[in-house]
């Protein structure tokens, strides 16, 4: 995870903090994960899961607010900035231009 990035909470549009949290139900089976956490609402972001909320140590509502990078399969974009025009969702991968730009269309939930 890159500490130089500004990852915004998709609910508050406030910068999130890099942290390490224990998650019981990740697809990879890995329990300790580096994630970005919102200091206001506790919402978290991980490039594999997108934005999510923890209930106990489990991810609930996985897949919500998720935009996938068109170039990296399974890589969820994060919210970099928000303007009057819309939201700017970008990919975490270094040098990837995938997803740059405003995405205003609603995302279909799985
Ligand atoms: Zn928040
Ligand atoms: Zn990408």
Tell me the total number of β-strands.
7
Q: Please state the structural category.
A: mainly beta
Q: What Rg is obtained from the alpha carbons, in whole angstroms?
A: 13 Å
Q: Please give the order of strands in the largest beta sheet.
A: 1-2-3-4-5
Order of SSEs: EEEEEEE
Uncertain regions spanning at least 5 consecutive residues: 101-110
Strand content: 25-35%
Unique bound compounds: zinc ion
In DSSP terms (H or I, runs of 4 or more residues), the helix count works out at 0
Q: How is the biggest beta sheet arranged?
A: 5 strands, antiparallel
Give a structural overview.
- This protein has 110 residues and is mainly β.
- It is built from no helices and 7 strands.
- A 5-stranded antiparallel beta sheet has the order 1-2-3-4-5, with no helix packed on it. Strands 6-7 form a two-stranded antiparallel sheet.
- The protein is globular.
- It starts with 16 loop residues before the first strand and ends in a 20-residue tail after the last strand.
- The C terminus is likely disordered.
- The chain binds zinc ion (2 copies).
Give the secondary structure arrangement, pairings included:
Elements: E1 17-22, E2 32-37, E3 44-46, E4 50-55, E5 58-60, E6 78-83, E7 86-90
Antiparallel strand pairs: 1-2, 2-3, 3-4, 4-5, 6-7
Bound molecules: zinc ion (2 copies).
One zinc ion (ZN) binds at residues 9, 11-12, 38, 40-41, 43.
Looking at this protein, list some descriptive labels.
mainly beta; two-stranded antiparallel ribbon; 7 strands; binds zinc ion
Short structural description:
This protein is mostly beta strands and 110 residues long. It is built from no helices and 7 strands. Bound molecules: zinc ion (ZN) (2 copies).
């Amino acid at each position: 995870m890159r500490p130089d990035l500004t990852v915004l909470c998709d609910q508050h549009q406030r910068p999130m903090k890099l942290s390490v949290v224990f998650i019981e139900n990740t697809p990879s089976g890995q329990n300790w994960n580096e994630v970005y956490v919102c200091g206001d609402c506790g919402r978290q972001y991980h490039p594999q899961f997108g934005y999510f909320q923890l209930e106990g140590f489990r991810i609930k509502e996985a897949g919500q607010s998720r935009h996938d990078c068109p170039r990296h399969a399974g890589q969820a974009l994060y919210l970099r900035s928000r303007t009057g025009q819309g939201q700017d969702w970008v990919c975490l991968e270094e040098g990837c231009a995938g997803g740059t730009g405003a995405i205003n269309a609603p995302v279909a939930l799985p």
